[in-house]
Amino acid sequence: MNPRTPSPEDQYTAEPFVPGGADLPALREAAAGCRGCPLHRDATQTVFGAGNPHGRVMLVGEQPGDQEDRKGRPFVGPAGKLLDRALAEAGIDPAEAYLTNAVKHFKFTQAEPRKRRIHKAPTLREMTACGPWLAAELALVEPELIVVLGATAGKALLGSSFRVTEVRGTVLEAEIHGRPERLVPTVHPSAVLRADDREGAYRGLVSDLKTAAQALA
Fold it and tell me: Three-state SS for 93?
């Protein structure tokens, strides 16, 4: 009896789905059919990066949320609106940024079909599986700076030992997917929305983004 041939999602890599030599629109189209890990099964659709294709700054979050999953674009929910406000206050034009996530499918738990879908953090294996998409985006956008939004994005880019509280608001230098990059880590805007002291958390986010703005000056 022949062993079962592993399906692409069992391999936990998006590599076979990433077309060589593609521009961003072609990558987005190809990503819609990605089956590089099991997360595609329950998500509504792939949520690829969006924004300025030549943005000086790339913002990398964790994964799409409920509204992003439904609409097919990153950062269109409450956290995205807060991020736009914080960027503008810090002196970074949101229209000059490219926004994406380390993981392109929404991972969630749901007690019952009609109940609210609750965000669930992706595993390191799932983040690694999605890495080829992020690598392709970086190679095409060629940002001068990456703003790392939250711990999960930081682990996806900088490894499992990353701790956002230790390095937030500082300019780091690292090789990311074969490219030397400058990065400024900060909290994810959704963490600001969940904070007990929301105003204090927001001011901290703006402060970190001002560091990013200074690094771009």
Answer: coil
